[in-house]
Specification:
Strand order of the largest sheet: 2-10-9-8-11-6-5
Distance between the termini: 30 Å
Largest sheet: 7 strands, antiparallel
Helix content: 10-25%
Number of helices: 2
Radius of gyration: 18 Å
Length: 203
């Protein structure tokens, strides 16, 4: 076990450095990392890893909304959240709904920054436009700095990422699917990102 190097606070209180294929587990609050995906051992619980999947249809619908407003010279609705050019909509489908957050698994194949923002259960994509008030906090921010191409170190805001994971587990109890905005920056793109979240199933 290695102790994470703690950086001075810039935007948030805590930041954790982890190796590729390794992410937050319940022990991360103590600032520890392992060289393999961390495991939370609960004898009576089984582990479930759920991948975030690109929702190409919904992403296209939201892009067409932006395009339509631009072509007609119209303004968005008051409080409406339009999809930015560097964003895409991802979904998380829950096979089980009584879950406890375990850890994140994020892989960035090259330097870049990924910001994941969840939407609330009040957003029904097939009926309404996304509103700013339907975006949940905190967001998950993960990045791989520029440097040695062989250094796959991933950084994140530890406390926020853990709180975010717990929030997702809570919402899974009332939702079978959740939608997220993935924002890609600093060289990051959908082709270079692989993201999933691990839970343990509550008995």
């Amino acid at each position: 076990m290695k102790t994470c190097k703690k950086e001075p606070r810039v935007e948030k209180e805590r930041m954790e450095e982890v190796k590729a294929k390794t992410f937050l587990d319940n022990s991360s609050r103590s600032g520890t990392t392992t060289s393999q995906p961390a495991e939370v051992r609960h004898p009576s619980m089984s582990k479930i890893e759920l991948p975030f999947r690109l929702d190409t249809q919904l992403t296209e619908v939201m892009r067409l909304r932006v395009q339509s407003l631009q072509q007609r010279g119209q303004k968005r609705q008051d409080g409406e959240r339009l999809l930015m050019p560097n964003e895409a909509v991802y979904r998380l489908d829950f096979s089980q709904q009584s879950l406890q957050f375990s850890h994140w698994m994020v892989r960035l194949n090259q330097a870049g920054r990924l910001t994941i923002t969840a939407t609330s259960q009040l957003w029904t994509p097939d009926l309404t436009h996304l509103m700013t008030r339907q975006l949940l906090e905190p967001a998950g921010v993960f990045w791989r700095p520029q440097g040695n191409a062989h250094d796959a170190t991933i950084n994140c805001y530890e406390a926020d990422a853990h709180e975010f994971g717990e929030r997702i587990a809570e919402l899974a109890k009332v939702r079978k699917v959740m939608y997220f905005l993935f924002a890609f920056a600093d060289g990051c793109s959908p082709e270079t990102v692989d993201c999933s979240i691990s839970f343990t199933e509550e008995s």
